[in-house]
């Protein structure tokens, strides 16, 4: 029935929802006034997107915030406003001007340069890689996807960018960390080596040092050391050294070669910890293709067919 109404031109289906073609609705005078105010404010805001909350606060909470949001969404469906993915709005005219400016910059420069990407990555020295969405958002949010992807591909083919794990990094980019961060990194790596097989978290290190350091900074540095491959990060945000993981792999392999399978009880015997700590370690071994889980046991990936 719906298909018939669409084929007859009585219904249309933009964006997956059905609408009556050329349906006009009568809004109350109060809503019409509020719509006029919203459109005027959108034009005044020019390139700056605004939210329902911004407008609501500007008018000293005089209007119902949910009603403002509903009307902004309505204006978006009417194509009078553009809605960004953070529920902020601007006019189509402003978006066109933004596109022109971005295009002009790209045309002047001729292409996306390594310096552009480096500027993004060195804003935060601990962040050595950025996904393409972030690079695009910061450099040229309105640029068409095809030319943007082509520019990234060119930088990769020239060996200036590399793309490990889906995020772009500048080949051989080195950043200067503050002396304080360097000291804390040394302490974290020393602690990781002392912890041996026992994974640790930012919280563990923070409590050990009697909350002397900022816990968020500890987490950032642990994440940085993970991107540098100095530490391995498990799925519960606990860390250990690659050297410790190699020793774990040797012990796990030895048990499986002797018994055919590894159970959680086995892992407690050879590693010294139970389910809470042991499961994330074993799941990491699964994730890198070293072992395969079969029920509550693990076998070596290379022999998985043998044990089926």
Could you characterize the architecture of this molecule?
The protein is mainly alpha-helical. The protein has 4 domains: about 20-95, Winged helix-like DNA-binding domain superfamily/Winged helix DNA-binding domain (Arc Repressor Mutant, subunit A), CATH 1.10.10.10; about 110-170, Arc Repressor Mutant, subunit A, CATH 1.10.10; about 180-240, Winged helix-like DNA-binding domain superfamily/Winged helix DNA-binding domain (Arc Repressor Mutant, subunit A, Orthogonal Bundle), CATH 1.10.10; about 240-305, Winged helix-like DNA-binding domain superfamily/Winged helix DNA-binding domain (Arc Repressor Mutant, subunit A), CATH 1.10.10. It is about 55% helix and about 10% strand. It contains 14 helices and 10 strands. The chain has helices at about 1-5, 30-45, 50-60, 65-75, 90-110, 115-120, 130-140, 145-155, 180-195, 200-210, 215-225, 240-260, 265-270, 275-285; strands at about 10, 20, 80-85, 90, 160, 170, 230-235, 240, 290-295, 295-300. The strands form 5 sheets. Strands 1-2 form a two-stranded antiparallel sheet. The two termini are about 50 Å apart. The mean pLDDT is about 80.
């Amino acid at each position: 029935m719906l298909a018939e109404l669409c084929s007859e031109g009585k219904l249309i289906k933009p964006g997956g929802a059905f609408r009556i073609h050329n349906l006009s609705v009568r809004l109350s005078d109060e809503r019409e006034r509020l719509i006029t105010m919203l459109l005027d404010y959108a034009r005044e805001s020019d390139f700056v997107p605004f939210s329902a909350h911004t407008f609501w606060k500007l008018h000293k909470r005089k209007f119902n915030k949910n009603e403002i949001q509903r009307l902004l969404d309505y204006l978006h469906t009417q194509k009078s406003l553009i809605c960004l993915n953070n529920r902020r709005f601007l006019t189509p005219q402003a978006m066109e001007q933004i596109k022109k400016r971005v295009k002009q910059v790209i045309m002047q420069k001729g292409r996306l340069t390594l310096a552009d990407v480096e500027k993004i990555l060195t804003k935060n020295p601990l962040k050595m890689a950025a996904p393409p969405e972030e690079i695009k958002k910061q450099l040229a949010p309105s640029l068409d996807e095809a030319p943007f992807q082509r520019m990234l591909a060119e930088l990769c083919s020239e060996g200036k960018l590399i793309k490990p794990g889906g995020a772009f990094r500048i080949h051989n980019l080195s950043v200067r960390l503050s002396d304080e961060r360097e000291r804390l990194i040394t302490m974290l790596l020393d602690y990781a080596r002392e912890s041996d097989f026992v994974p640790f978290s930012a919280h563990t290190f923070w409590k050990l040092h009697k909350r002397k350091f900022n816990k968020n900074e500890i987490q950032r540095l642990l994440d940085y050391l993970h991107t540098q491959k100095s530490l391995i990060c498990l799925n519960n945000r606990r860390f250990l050294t690659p050297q410790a993981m190699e020793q774990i792999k040797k012990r796990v392999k030895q048990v499986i070669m002797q018994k055919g399978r590894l159970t959680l009880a086995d892992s407690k015997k050879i590693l010294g910890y139970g389910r809470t700590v042991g499961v994330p370690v074993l799941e990491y071994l699964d994730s890198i293709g070293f072992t395969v889980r079969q029920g509550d046991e693990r076998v070596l990936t290379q022999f998985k067919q043998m044990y089926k």
